[in-house]
Automatic annotation (TrEMBL), chains A, B:
A Pfam family annotated for this UniProt entry: WHD_NrtR
Protein name according to UniProt: ADP-ribose pyrophosphatase
UniProt organism field: Paenibacillus donghaensis
Residue ranges annotated for the Nudix hydrolase domain, each copy included: 27-173
InterPro entries: NUDIX_hydrolase-like_dom_sf, NUDIX_hydrolase_dom, WH-like_DNA-bd_sf, WH_DNA-bd_sf, WHD_NrtR
DNA sequence: TCAAAAGTGTTGAGACTACACCCATGT
DNA sequence: ACATGGGTGTAGTCTCAACACTTTTGA
């Protein structure tokens, strides 16, 4: 019964599709860009202190124009017979060699002049990797991929009241460090409010040798990561299967950029983790129990 | 000093860009699809009762193959010299004739077979409109655009425990009504959990005369709207400039799909609204003060 | 007079903050 | 012994749900 409807030319849907000419107007290229985060231990000077941790992001050194020699997010073109998500997983796998890890779409960037070569629209995806599950560690062999420590700092805040609203601007300095290399740039986050209408714009103020508009993608991703850490369990994607509560707390602190009280923290995450029989040793202080992630009764989040 | 670096062919960035050939490989088309929501009063039988409200979504009746005769989200192609957001605002304006309204990007849909004509990647945007500010009301003149009442109902929930996780499926029936027309379809939301790795997939189970994969976009948008209503002030984009607290409460209830207690509600939103001198009259019961949206000291949300 | 809605007060449960305090270990 | 982190207890604040109750209007 369906599909027998005909259009103004008297064609059925089948006939229409058979004769359909997609036309030759100019189309944008579509790419995916991957924000692959992990957490890494940093050794301490004092034998008693725990190793500190840092949030890290994977970057690739560009070997071609444009932005040659600068650092960029891993990514690539979406081919014509591959879904957006497949493209993202393909890129992810080609960088990390792991398959089944957490990944989510963040945002699609569509400014006309994003790429000087041609019109490119790019979807950014965030992936979280537990460092201990990475066998081939990027940066070991080639010198064109490396994990960068991420620092995120609000350097200025302006607030201009307007009639019926305000304009608030926040400047955020993002610094990425890998050994001797230090990339640092500034993103402006501007919120314009008129009555209930809020509009948020992001702009690069200082690009700091980070390719294209990737600094904006990084800022967006960190913001999203911070948000999601507070109301989902994605953080456990950054943890090894066994961890101490202090380690978990440190990861929260690094992502949120603020210190937490241990007592309150323990109570808050108490029902997300399960104690195991194992514990740490040789730490120069009281050993701590190792925990693992415990699923809560089903939720169904996005 | 910058830009003087040369690549393997000895070209500077300027030279490279000048001679750059974008190639002729097949590119997907890119479109935007708009989810334009508003809230509408529905008259009551009883003179004493307040008018009830409904959440409405704007749909367009397709006059061409494919999906001829079915209803679809308004949208269109992104042209080569127009940003994604500009394309969305253009589509929004062409449907509503309003310019400065709330709009946000939701998600970009990139399955290969979304559109039977050719490969199309589509970004969905959500816009919220206060009904009273709509002058030209879609559906008045043409019969190809109409506001549909939205009903959202969870019809089934499955939960299958697996080793190290579970699979949870939720079937959601979405019914869209406009006068005699009733479109109803079912979307499956499946969450697969293995340890901390969560993967969410959406699938159309029953398409119900709604074009393409637009039913999924609608489900996603409602979910996002529900989420955002709880932790932002976007709901005021759906309200006229003056409103009673009961009206505001009804809009919350429609969006969240559950009833709220008036006492608690009033306290909760107390600092987001400001009393005015005006009040309702002739209502068949005690008049109520009219309120307006009051900005809180600046926040800077996304 | 009375149905319907507007609006206020009270109580108790639970979550989070802040701080104090004790415990266990390896050097 | 002691620095360092592991871990628990308690008191105060805040939010929110639940329910009871009073007030005000127009037909």
């Amino acid at each position: 019964m369906p599909k027998s409807i005909t259009d103004r030319q008297g064609l059925t849907e089948g006939q229409f599709l058979e004769s359909y000419d997609p036309g030759s107007y100019e189309r944008p290229s579509v790419t995916v860009d991957m924000l692959i985060f992990t957490v890494m231990n940093r050794e301490q000077d004092n034998y008693r202190k725990l190793p500190d941790k840092s949030l890290q992001l994977l970057l690739i050194k560009r070997g071609e124009h444009p932005c040659l020699g600068q650092w960029a997010l891993p990514g690539g073109f979406v081919s014509i017979n591959e879904s957006l998500e497949d493209a993202a997983r393909r890129e992810l796998f080609s960088e990390t060699n792991i398959d089944n890890i957490y990944m989510e779409q963040l945002f699609t960037w569509g400014a006309v002049e994003r790429d000087p070569r041609m019109r490119v629209i790019s979807s950014s995806y965030m992936a979280l990797v537990d460092r201990s599950s990475l066998r081939v560690q990027a940066g070991d062999d080639a010198d064109d991929a490396a994990w960068f420590d991420v620092a995120y700092e609000v350097v200025e805040e302006k607030h201009i009241p307007l009639e019926q609203g305000y304009e608030a601007e926040r400047l955020i300095r993002i610094t990425l460090r890998h050994g001797e290399i230090s990339l640092s740039g500034v993103v402006s986050l501007k919120e314009t409010v008129q009555g209930p209408v809020r509009k948020l714009t992001r702009e690069i103020i200082e690009r700091g040798e980070i390719a294209f508009d990737h600094l904006i993608m990084i800022q967006y991703a960190i913001e999203r990561l911070r948000g999601k850490v507070e109301y989902t369990d994605i953080i456990f994607n950054l943890m090894p299967s066994l961890f101490t509560l202090s380690e978990l707390q440190r990861v929260y602190e690094i992502i949120l950029g603020k210190e937490l009280l241990a007592a309150a923290f323990r109570r808050k995450i108490a029902d997300k983790v399960a104690e195991t029989d194992e514990s740490t040793r040789d730490a120069g202080h009281r050993p701590s129990k190792l925990y693992r992630y415990k699923l809560l009764p089903h939720q169904l989040h996005s």
